[in-house]
Amino acid sequence: MSTETADWDLPTLIKASIDHGEEAWNELVRRFSGLVAFVIRHYRLSPTDTQDVSQLVWLRLVEHLGRLRDPHALPGWLATTTRHECERYLRVNGRSVAVDPLTLGADQTDDASSVDDVLLAAERRQVLLDALSSLAPQHRELLLMLSADPPYAYAEISRILGMPIGSIGPTRSRVLDKLRDTDAIRAYLEADRSEQMGRCP
């Protein structure tokens, strides 16, 4: 990895990638592979399927990178595209819901309550992605880096985002507060409260 490309901001990195800069493209993939993996992981695909979907996502980016109007919209575009590719992959392979038999139990995969739980989890993931997309690009990247598996080291986050290491923890707390206050999260929580009140005798 080139030290030079690792220090580039996102607009510069995208422009260099469009201009067929191999090092820039490799750095772009490295910088956002955690985001793609984060989204794919929630669909419980096999390692082989995960690799296939990931390759499709990067292929889509190659096709659309030159049409991206706002470079800072790339994380949201990648998250949405990855989700669409996961859902498409499941449909093509005859699986409409990402159910893990090891989690649900082999004799419970067709149980209605188990499917409801999976659908609810998928709904919550979508709400989270919508909420993340409304954050400032740097704040969104910070949360995604910290929630990657494994999470980015503070030193690496500091280098990529240009943040002092000592400010990462406090910034994370402030960003989480902002995340909870997004329209997507507030609307979801309000709907959940209304539903629970409707169940009360």
From TrEMBL:
Residues 28-95 form the RNA polymerase sigma-70 region domain. Coiled coil: none annotated. One of its GO terms (biological process) is DNA-templated transcription initiation. One of its GO terms (molecular function) is sigma factor activity. InterPro entries: RNA_pol_sigma-70-like, RNA_pol_sigma-70_dom, RNA_pol_sigma70_r2, RNA_pol_sigma_r2, RNA_pol_sigma_r3/r4-like, WH-like_DNA-bd_sf. It comes from the Bacteria. NCBIfam families: sigma70-ECF. Belongs to the sigma-70 factor family. ECF subfamily. This is RNA polymerase sigma factor. It comes from Mangrovihabitans endophyticus. The gene is rpoE.
